Amino acid sequence: MKNLLRVLRAEKGWSQAELAEKLGVARQSINAVETGKFDPSLPLAFRIARLFGQPVESIFEDDEA
Amino acid sequence: MRYSRLGYWGASAAGVVLALGGAVAVVFGMPPGVYWAKFAAFTFVIIGAVWVVLLAYRSADEVMLGEHKTAWFWGGMIMLSLVGPLAVGIVWRLVPMPLIIHAMGSLRSAFHAPPPPAWIPQPSQPQLYFLEGMVFVVIAQLVAFLVVLAWLRLRPAKQ
Q: Is B118 in CB contact (< 8 Å) with chain A?
């Protein structure tokens, strides 16, 4: 699954550590999601979407879609 | 579940220290005799260490838990698939016993463990091989777990 997390984070001017703090996860976890190594669960995906004020499907894109 | 660096790493370290320190204290610190008391104390130490490690588990986030599950599954399965046939080969005498005995002797001399206190009865050879076999499997799986975990973290980015 592809995502725009790195782009959205850069627009806000947040570091990975700051975003991790806001989401309650480890900084390494933000890196894993941004690099596509790990697909977040639905609850975490919705937390990310709420934080950036966007729908989930505009942040995460299915590879097969 | 909310990630806490102090909770995760602190509880992990405390669990390891409690398990190892407790085991050493029971073996070397308790007076001779009363084996049931030592057995109870050792069991208490292990249960305490597991409880502390569970605290670490609760402080981890979903990415860390996912990595650990994947690493245990693949690391454990791969190493079991290697150790399992080896065990069958030993039992069926397909692996030459001198080779096994030589390998175990090399392993023993590689780890210079302190001699146990005098009150601990010397294990019989079958007991010794059983214990060493258990330790070997656990260490082999732990190594495989760490290898897979390192691969998960160091693999190239997908996007």
A: no
Q: Are B63 and B3 in contact (CB under 8 A)?
A: no
Domain regions of chain B by residue span: 1-60, 61-159
What is this structure's pTM? 0.79
Q: What would the pLDDT profile of B106-148 be if each residue is shown by its tens digit?
A: 777 777 666 777 777 777 878 877 888 888 888 899 999 999 9
Which positions in chain A have a beta carbon within 8 angstroms of at least one beta carbon in chain B?
2-3, 20, 24-26, 28-29, 32-38, 40-41, 44
ipTM of the complex: 0.84
CATH 1.10.240.10 fits A2-56, yes or no: no
Do A29 and B62 lie within an 8 Å CB cutoff? Answer: yes
Using an 8 Å Cβ cutoff, are B151 and B77 in contact? no
Rounded to the nearest 5 degrees, what angle is found at the Cα of B146, between the Cα atoms of B4 and B130? 115
